[in-house]
Amino acid sequence: MTTSKSKKQAPDTAPVKKQRGQWAEVWHRLKKNKGAMVGLTIVVILIFIALFSDVFLDYDTDVIGVNTAERLQPPSAKHIMGTDEYGRDIFCRILYGTKYSLSVGVVAVIIALLIGVTLGAVAGYAGGPTEEVIMRFTDIFSSVPNMLMALVVVAALGQSMFNLMLAIGITSVPQFVRITRAAVLTVKTQEYVEAARAIGLRNYRIIFSHILPNCLSPIIVQTTLRVASAIISASSLSFLGLGIPAPDPEWGAMLSAGRRFIRDYSYMTLFPGLAIMITVLALNLVGDGLRDALDPRLKD
Amino acid sequence: MYRYVLKRLVLLIPVLLGVSFLVYFILDLAPGDAVDVLAPDDATQEDRERMREELGLNRPLVIRYLDYMSDLVRGDMGESYLSGQPVWDSFIEKAPNTLLLGFASLVVSVGLSLPLGIYSANRHGTWKDNVSMVLALLGLSIPNFWLGLLLMLLFALRLGWLPSGGADGFASLILPAITIGTGMMATLTRTTRSSMLDVIRQDYLRTARAKGVSERVVIRKHALKNALIPIITIIGTQLGGILGGAVLTESVFSWPGVGRLIVDSLNSRDTPMVTGAIIMTTMFFSVVLLLVDLLYAFVDPRIKAQYATKKGGKSNDNKQKQKASA
Amino acid sequence: MKRFLSLVLCLLMFAGMLAGCSSNTDTDPSTDDGTTTTTPDNENNSTGDETTPSGEENYKKDIIFGLGGKIVALDPQANSNTQHNYYFRMVFDTPLDFNNETQELEPNIVTEWSTEDAVTYSFTLRDDVYFHNGEQLTADDVKFSYDRAPDTDSASTLGDLIKETRVIDDFHFEIELHSANVDLPYLLTLPTASIINREAVTENELEGTGIGSGPWMVDSYEFGDYMKLVRNDNFWGEKAKAETFTLRYMPETSARLISLETGEIDICADPDPLDLERVRGTDGLELQSYVGTSITYFAMNYKKEPFNDQNLRLAMAYGINAQELIDVVRLGEAQPCLSLWGWNQYGYNGGTTPYEYDPEKAKEYLAAAGYSESNPFSFKLSVSAGERKSCGELIQAQLKEIGVNVEIVEFDTAGLSTSTTNGEHEACLYGCGMNIFGDDSRRLICPGTGVNKSHYDNPEVNELMDLAVAELDDTKRTEYYHEVQQILHDDGAYVPLYFANGFFAVKEGTGGIDYYPTSHHDMSNVYIIEQ
């Protein structure tokens, strides 16, 4: 079905296509999704900003340097997004904050990914009592609503960037466990796994070299979408006063600080809010695009 | 079927035990206890010790937990450290508000998502489809407390049409419901669209079209009701999550619900209140999920057949599907 | 068939939702009195029916007061924070009253009091005071209240002072203290000294503690949400002018003010300083203000590294620009705070002991402590969210000017309270409202209490405080207190930052609120005149 479909849409590339690998095929489909490409471009730009913000901004002066003479200024040529209550340039802070927001999202999901995929793979592959135990624990974690779980964890561990990542990461673990397990279950019985087992490969090698690579697509999609929601969760926790400690310019914390000024200086909440929105939307577009590209059946 | 329900309910017990254990122990990691909140500025160390003793906080954590659990299994959720009121009373005072908000948000969400999803599916592949889907995604991408603040700024302050907070009648429900509803929209729109797409291509719809039935009737009479099953699932999952998920919106709009109760109690280290409220929320969530699964089985004979023969694990797969899309 | 069923089920679900909506909105507990209005329009239309003409003026019948703290206790001996005190002052009577205008003690349910030695005090009660359950208030209830005090959460300080409360007859009693304390009459004006009813409390400890003898009675409440009071028509003194008074918990400051603007509430406690101009400029609203005695201070842990070094403490004292904090964080709405005494507190040594902002001097002290540019000093500053966090961020920037690196550690209230009480912190920002009597500063500067966030313990100061509280001679007592303030200043125990000005945003025509600089206002006589 896939082949015929692709042929119909792009007949001139059909001969080349045959040599393309699975991932090239995915990329080819993704390229055709305008939304995903826009999202991807934004994400790439954001990563660029995050990586190089230290090159063009000086943390001490541009980002946290207080200048009370220029406080609460509306957007102007000098401060294109205005200044905050301490006279700090909001544009600089938002640029610099990319690093924090993205890294919270990414690290939180990496934590979830490491724990979740390992547990999920083990559960799916091992089966029996091991699976039962892992899945019951997963049930326990996932039956507490995510936001509440994260709240409790941050409140208990105290406020720091790492604890924030940990709290959000922990709440995302169950999804990864379930997805990985389900994927492993479908792949497990395939012939090449049987073959690997037959030639006496060790279990962990079978899992990591033979099973996991073949159930990557749902995990990748989930990862992208989870980064997006982790950024939202981080900003939500910041809003409740459990975010990254001052004076670091994390967007959620900026939003939370600007809330006090929303009536007269709404730009203080507007711009960080927009930054979060654009980032999350871009990630969601990419995630959605990936989902369609990896599973073309869904799209058509 | 009954055995299945019974099994699910029995399985709920270790889950709830686990949740209570988890929450109770994690909370204990937090610096400070309820006495630090209760004690006035001029309290001496002896005063604090005495207050700890009265609340039983001077005992080791494990003993406190076992004590709490032995009450809990007898249906007693204990008393708030802060107010001395039974936890159950406080919870049941707030729960209707949150449920009300949840239903209202669902109405908003369903009211926006179904038409948008159907529209999108109908114009599948066109720019209109793309725009609709981006619109739905936008709902998911906006931090909803931010949206809440913007809505409040516009409708309560600039225009003065709606109240800015509190739970006073229908008008005060509108803004928080929109805030939460738009957040739930994305998943629901997507599900509506894809299940409509699935159904639209079925043979009997081609037949209907071929018979000359108008497109509108095709959609309304034939396609929609077949596409409903996955939609119901998503609705159920979201409803279940609302009890705990409305924390931020409740805080923005001063809505006296369970979310705010939990956040406030968390800040005052009111362990019995937080644990109790989370256990109740979890129970609600799990029961709704069970009901959704049953509903699912009820409307789809293939699944019903599975339940009859199934051996463990199936429920997880079902949940996983919902979770993945949630 | 199955498809049809699924449709029906879906419809049922919708119907359920709709039913859920409508039935719940109708029976919402906070609106069932039918008179609280949610929109300004409603209010204007219905004012005629709502108000009862009393004298020449039309007083608004139902007043709703939005406040930022939640009420979680009925018992006046169980809590002592601002929001509870609003309610306690309205519902309960204290033996004595403090007049904020004359700054004098006044009789309340106690008509006469006397003491020879500040150890034993005798009191005469009014004979026409009745509790809300109809019981007469007698010396026995006073004894009951104060005997109970030592084992309560918030009245234990008072209770611990008292050796014995003796009933002479129904309307006469004596209080004997463990040691001389000239401030007892002032302590008896605080809400923690409220008299509760023996019978009601013995019968039901949870509900009975909500029965007082004041001008208002508890009607209904939902802890953490609202508390509704109704006028006590049998009150012995001046009766309230409104009929109901609802204290509603609205934690978001901006949302609270918005509710006032849209007419959902009548009085908004503590609006954000940012919004004061708006309130002043809005027709139909009014701003009422008072100069508070609530001190915001920078406390350094005296007991451990690094601030056990006096040079470092003084470096902070001169390196922090308190005026900039006032200008930026409070937008000018605060008074400089020159010592650890409230400006109206007994023994205040006003203006003779300020730390002038002087970065050069601060650097000298830093150098004396052994720090330089190549060896910069850094420390952790513990703060809670909100205003104090803003102060922290600014102090962080100010101290950077003198080469000090500050790491801000943010806690929630409980976390900050614990870590600072246990002395885990290096420095913190904290605040406390000072009462009128001199000995109130003890909790800041003597060891053993939670609010001494510097863990300050200076034998000289302790001794002077002990001498002062037992001293009947005013001149001597004042001298002791002045001396204490001088020592604290030289030692660099704390850096007092400012007294925040307090504000209430109210509907035009609101009056009768007795503003206490401690922020524990008496709202018993609150009224709103309607045009």
Q: Care to describe what's here?
A:
The complex is a heterotrimer of chains A (300), B (326) and C (531). Chain A is mainly alpha-helical. Helices cover 75% and strands 0% of the residues of chain A. Chain A has helices at 2-9, 14-17, 22-31, 34-56, 59-63, 90-126, 128-143, 146-157, 161-188, 191-198, 203-211, 216-239, 251-258, 267-294, 296-299. In chain A, α8 crosses α9 (161-188). Mean pLDDT of chain A is 82; it is low at 1-18. Chain B has 2 domains: 2-73, no CATH class; 87-295, MetI-like fold (Orthogonal Bundle), CATH 1.10.3720. Helix content of chain B is 79%, strand content 0%. Chain B is built from 15 helices and no strands. Chain B has helices at residues 2-29, 34-38, 45-55, 61-73, 87-122, 127-141, 144-158, 171-200, 203-210, 215-245, 247-252, 258-267, 271-299, 301-309, 314-325. In chain B, α8 (171-200) crosses α10. The longest helix of chain B has 36 residues, at 87-122. Chain B is elongated, with a radius of gyration of 24 Å. The two termini of chain B are 26 Å apart. Chain C is of the alpha+beta class. Chain C is built from 18 helices and 21 strands. In chain C, the strands form 4 sheets. In chain C, strands 3, 10, 11, 12, 13, 14, 15, 16, 17, 18 and 19 form an 11-stranded mixed sheet that branches. In chain C, strands 1-2-21-20 form a 4-stranded antiparallel sheet. In chain C, β8 (162-169) and β9 (172-177) form a beta hairpin. Chain C starts with a helix and ends with a strand. Mean pLDDT of chain C is 86; it is low at 1-54. The chains are: A mainly alpha (300), B mainly alpha (326), C alpha+beta (531). Chains in contact: A-B, A-C, B-C. At the B-C interface, α2, α3, α5, α7 and α8 of B face α1, α5, α9 and α15 of C.
What distinguishing features does this structure have?
heterotrimer, A: 300 residues, mainly alpha, MetI-like fold, disordered N terminus, B: 326 residues, 2 domains, 15 helices, elongated, disordered C terminus
